[in-house]
Specification:
The complex is a heterodimer of chains A (245) and B (437). Chain A has one domain: Rossmann fold (3-Layer(aba) Sandwich), CATH 3.40.50.720. In chain A, 48% of the residues lie in helices and 16% in strands. Chain A has a seven-stranded parallel β-sheet, with helices on both faces. In chain A, helix 1 runs parallel beside helix 2 and helix 3 runs parallel beside helix 5. Chain A is globular and about 55 Å long. The N and C termini of chain A lie far apart (46 Å). By secondary structure, chain B is α+β, with helices and mostly antiparallel strands. Chain B has three domains: 58 residues; 114 residues, Uridine Diphospho-n-acetylenolpyruvylglucosamine Reductase, domain 3 (2-Layer Sandwich), CATH 3.30.465; 217 residues, Vanillyl-alcohol Oxidase, Chain A, domain 3 (3-Layer(aba) Sandwich), CATH 3.40.462. Chain B contains 13 helices and 20 strands. The radius of gyration of chain B is 21 Å and the shape is globular. The chains are: A alpha/beta (245), B alpha+beta (437). Chain B: It holds the Pfam family FAD_binding_4. Chain B: InterPro entries: ALO_C, FAD-bd_PCMH, FAD-bd_PCMH-like_sf, FAD-bd_PCMH_sub2, FAD_lactone_oxidase-like, Oxid_FAD_bind_N. Chain B: It comes from Litoreibacter ascidiaceicola.
Chain lengths: 245, 437
């Protein structure tokens, strides 16, 4: 069966690693993002790694007008349609404290934009009777912390959305994987202090692929983050509110 | 954040630098940061000495720009981003009949690094240096991207190959790949009893890929004994390369103490039967034997090690005996010592190769190591040879002009491109390269 992956936010290093990995498996890729010249370079790479079709296409989480052409292009292709969502932005909590209007954009990038896109493409997936959605959230979405609770709450919203979408797509044979990465060595985290146990994008991509194959519902990557977040979410709120973790 | 303060080292781990490092993932972010701060590029930092260091300055880590941009199966020309690693290219293309024309001893080296040091491989006597197979370079300097090649911007092209990043940031390149039969190697190993036999065997070798391992602890009659490896590409089926393992911590200093090395080398020599043997291996195991052991530089302990590599003209082969004598009696050698015949092939003004013999030896960073290397450098200069800047952390600047006669031309060009010395590294400052302008 031909598989096509629509990769939203394909310029990120995690998305790039994932696109390369599915290309090596012989899947088709549609790389969606804002920097078209860069996406074209990635598309060349994917084609040379083994993707029979590799295309770059405009996508902006804050501009819903860019969504329809992607869905149209996907509907022309045969086989299963899969979507992997890597979009997101993380202004620091300090920046948001100084300018709370940044919240709207953060919510759009991490939740409202991708959720709108998924809502639009879901009927097409249902019609084809299968397909997988990979939604990249964050461990930050498991609990609101003083350090970045706006970003965390947007991711939490996205997690809940994915849970509902999973409930819906299961009925037509589809599947949704919620991915909660810990610290990953990307451009977004480059130079940020206090990072530990940092994983490479290639490691995250390999974990995601494994989760897709095994039809896992929610994964933490690297896996030990499940334990860390298990502890953090177990702390009673009356104690947690005094901590700065 | 764009700039991250990092303390890092070259592969030898003797010298270190603390620099502001950026790691762009796209051409647009590279262009934006170069427009604001000019800085030399670095890759996987597999050069041994200080050519990748810029203490107190800035550096641009290119390892995230590693995509294959295009391949023409008719001509075998591959366009690739500078951060792509040679081993990854080999693994991707060997099964379909193409290999990088020249590969250094580690597959972790980036394309940009291979160009900037004009590296050579086990086929140098036939294929020449890496730069001789570079068709075009996309170079960024002064915030602008330009393409240089043998036919366009030839001067800049020749200064960039082997130019240690002094002409700007190599963004991507077109490489002429070499047809190969498949992704396995047929390797013949023979014991060689002493240096004279070794030189004869190297001269007589008809193989495409040739390299000699030397027991640098052997003295007297056995001085220069070792194992000659000759290999050809082929097709067939061999088990996949074994998964790599990592050295988990810094080894203690006695791990490479001289009696240990002597015993190890003797055993390693006898590993190959007296009448020799032929075997088949996955391609990466032949070209990148040490890559199986990730972070093997930790075997030298936390003080690190130096690698001395020189080339001397064929007529001066006698000085190799002098060098091996000094090394053997100093008791500083490690198991890693390599002898190879080089052809004349070189592509840049500051390229290392010349027709002759090249000797490479690791020395743990113990007292006496730098003094011994200084002596070896002196001998190399007197013999009309040169030391390899990709390995170097110690060369005295007074040797540079004689070893690299084109340094004046190089320095003039580089100074005109970069008058404020923004692309300088710890190595170019130590060697005072710009003073030759």
């Amino acid at each position: 069966m031909t598989e096509t992956w629509i990769i939203l936010g394909a310029t990120s290093s995690m998305a790039r690693a994932f696109a390369r990995a599915v290309s090596k498996n012989g899947d088709q890729v549609i790389l969606a993002g804002r920097d078209i010249p860069d996406l074209e370079a990635s598309a060349s790479d994917c084609a040379l790694q083994g993707a029979p079709i590799a295309e770059a296409i405009q996508f902006d989480a804050r501009d819903a007008a860019t969504f329809a052409p992607i869905i149209e292009r996907a509907s022309e292709l045969e086989g299963m349609i899969n979507v992997a969502v890597f979009v997101g932005s993380m202004p620091s909590q300090d920046q948001i404290d100084a300018d709370p209007s940044l919240i709207a954009g953060t919510v759009t990038d991490n939740y409202a934009g991708p959720a709108t896109f998924l809502q639009l493409i879901a009927p097409e997936m249902e019609e084809r009777g299968g397909g997988t959605v990979v939604g990249v959230g964050s461990v930050a979405g498991d609990r609101g912390r003083i350090g970045n609770y706006v970003y965390g709450s947007a991711k939490a919203g996205f997690h809940t959305y994915l849970s509902g979408l999973r409930n819906r797509l299961t009925r037509s044979g589809g599947h949704v994987v919620t991915v909660k990465p810990g610290f990953v060595d990307t451009a977004m985290t480059w130079g940020i202090e206090g990072m530990f146990l940092v994983a490479t994008p290639d490691k995250i991509a390999a974990d995601i692929l494994k989760a897709v194959e095994k039809r896992k519902d929610v994964i933490y990557t690297p896996g030990f983050w499940r334990l860390i977040m298990g502890i953090i979410t177990a702390i009673p709120e009356r104690m947690f509110k005094k901590l700065s973790v | 954040m764009i700039w991250n303060t990092l303390t890092y080292t070259g592969w030898g781990r003797v010298r270190s630098a603390t620099a502001q490092v950026a790691r762009p993932e796209r051409s647009s972010s590279l262009a934006a940061l170069q427009a604001e701060t000019t800085a030399p590029a670095i890759g996987m930092c597999r050069s041994y000495g200080d050519s990748c260091l810029n203490d107190g300055g800035h550096a641009v880590d290119m390892t995230r720009m590693d995509r294959l941009l295009g391949f023409d199966p008719e001509t075998g020309i591959l366009k690739v981003e500078a951060g792509a690693r040679i081993g990854d290219i080999a693994r991707r293309f060997a099964p379909v009949g193409w290999l990088p024309s020249v590969m250094p001893g580690t597959g972790f080296a980036t394309v940009g690094g291979c160009i900037a040091h004009d590296v050579h491989g086990k086929n140098h006597h036939g294929a020449g240096s890496f730069g001789q197979h570079v068709v075009e370079i996309s170079l960024m300097n002064d915030g602008k991207l330009q393409k240089v090649s043998q036919s366009k911007g030839m001067k800049l092209f020749r200064a960039t190959i082997g130019g240690m990043g002094q002409t700007g940031v190599i963004v991507s390149a077109k490489l002429q790949l070499l047809p190969c039969k498949g992704d396995i190697m047929t390797v013949t190993e023979r014991r060689i009893e002493n240096l004279d036999h070794f030189l004869e065997a190297l001269d007589a070798s008809q193989s495409t890929y040739t390299v000699g391992w030397i027991d640098a602890t052997a003295q007297g009659e056995a001085l220069g004994r070792g194992i000659l490896e000759e290999a050809e590409t082929g097709y067939g089926l061999v088990p996949d390369a074994k998964p790599s393992r990592a050295v988990p911590f810094n080894a203690p200093s006695w791990a490479l103490a001289s009696p240990v090395v002597r015993l190890f080398n003797a055993a390693y020599f006898r590993r190959v039967p007296e009448r020799g043997r032929t075997s088949v291996k996955p391609i990466t195991e032949f070209f990148f034997p040490l890559d199986k052991l990730l972070e093997w530089n930790r075997l030298y302990g936390k003080r690190g090690f130096h690698q001395f590599q020189c080339v001397v003209p064929v007529s001066e082969a006698a000085v190799l005996r002098l060098m091996l004598d000094k090394i053997g009696s100093a008791g500083l050698a490690s198991p890693l010592a390599v002898l190879k015949r080089m052809g004349p092939g070189r592509a840049g003004l500051m390229s290392f190769p010349m027709e002759g013999y090249t000797l490479a030896i690791d020395f743990p960073n113990r007292s006496g190591a730098e003094a011994l290397i200084a002596e070896l450098e002196e001998i190399t200069e007197k013999a009309g040879g040169r030391v390899y800047l990709a390995k170097d952390a110690t060369l005295d600047p007074s040797h540079l002009a004689k070893m690299y006669p084109d340094v004046t031309k190089f320095a003039k060009l580089v100074s005109s491109i970069d008058p404020d010395g923004q692309y300088e590294t710890d190595q170019t400052r130590r060697l005072n390269i710009r003073s030759h302008a």
